[in-house]
Structure formats: structure tokens, C-alpha cells
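Appendix B. Worked example

We walk through a single record from start to finish. Start with the input: the chain for Glutamate receptor, Portunus trituberculatus, length 191.
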Amino acid sequence: MHTRTSQLTWVSCVVRYVMRVPEDGQWGVLQKDGLWTGTVGTLQRRLADFSMLLNWSSKRFHAIDFSRIYAAEPLVIVSTQPRPRPHYLALVAPFTFEVWSFLVGVSLSGGAVHWALQRFRRRLLQGTGTTEVRDPAGKSYASALLYTTGVLLQNPPFKLPRNLTGQAGTTSGSVMLELEVPLRGGTRMVI
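Next comes the structure step. The output line below is what the pipeline stores for this chain.
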């Protein structure tokens, strides 16, 4: 970017110049004899008039003249490249804390609603003499919670329920497939 900018600037000023790359392709390393290699050595030997994007250090400051400092970096952090996440974090890593807390809240509240609706349905059917079909979610809150979480993760049970409440909860996964979620930048993604 700086090379292109300098080319456009110098061409517009009608100044002739020659752009050089250091012979060894390095920024500059101080040798035992006090001479520098790379860009700093090229400037020290006056084979070039100026250089762009050269950070200063106390040793370089004594070898060449820094008329303008582009970036003063007193501290350099060196680290290894990031490694892939472990396999046990593969499920957790893609989502933020807010998404996970929303998912837990929906699972807990969905399980409670499902359990309450099933209990209400049992009470309605007690006096009618209708034989009750066994509920796939069971009669405990834990089984209703696990059933609802399985439906939320689009892993419906093998035996579909006969009542309307259970069927609506089971088919919510296929309804979610049809929804469009707006993303940043105005694009849309189909889930």
C-alpha cells in the first residue's frame, strides 16, 4: 500500500526514482563488524535515500537517521499460531454465552410447559373414560425436559405422540427449517 502510494505521489511530482529491494531481503541485522544488512544496511551505506515502514530501535537509531517514525513499537509480542480447538469444545465453541443461555432457558421453560400441558391433559381425560395413550415424555419433569430438549435439537423420538400437543412440539423442528434468519449486512440464511 505504501509502495503504491509513494509511486503515485512521486509520479505526480514528476520526480525520477529507483525503487530497490534489499539484496538479502531482510529488514536489517547488526553484524559483528558494526555494519548492517538488509534495508538498514542499504541506508547506512547510502545506496538508498529513504525507506518506508522501518521501525526504529536504539541500535538502528545510531546507524541511520530517522526523519519520521511511522510506527514506534517498544514492545513486541511473539506467540505461536493458534491451534485448532480440542474435540470436546467443538459443540460449545461456535456460540456465544447469550446463545447458550437462551438455549438453556428455552429448554427449561419448554420442558416445564410440556410437562404442565401433559398433566393438564391427563386431568381432563380422567373423568371421560377414555383410555390414555402412554405419553412418550413420561410422567416426570425430567423426562419431559429431555423430550423437549431432544425436539429442540431436532432429534425427535422414534414413536410420535398421538395427542395434538406432542405432535406440535415434535414438528417444531421442521418448522424451524423453513424460517429465515437475517444476518449482518442484509444477507439472509436459511436454517
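Two observations about the output. The two ends are 40 Å apart (CA to CA). The CA atoms of residues 6 and 12 lie 10 Å apart.
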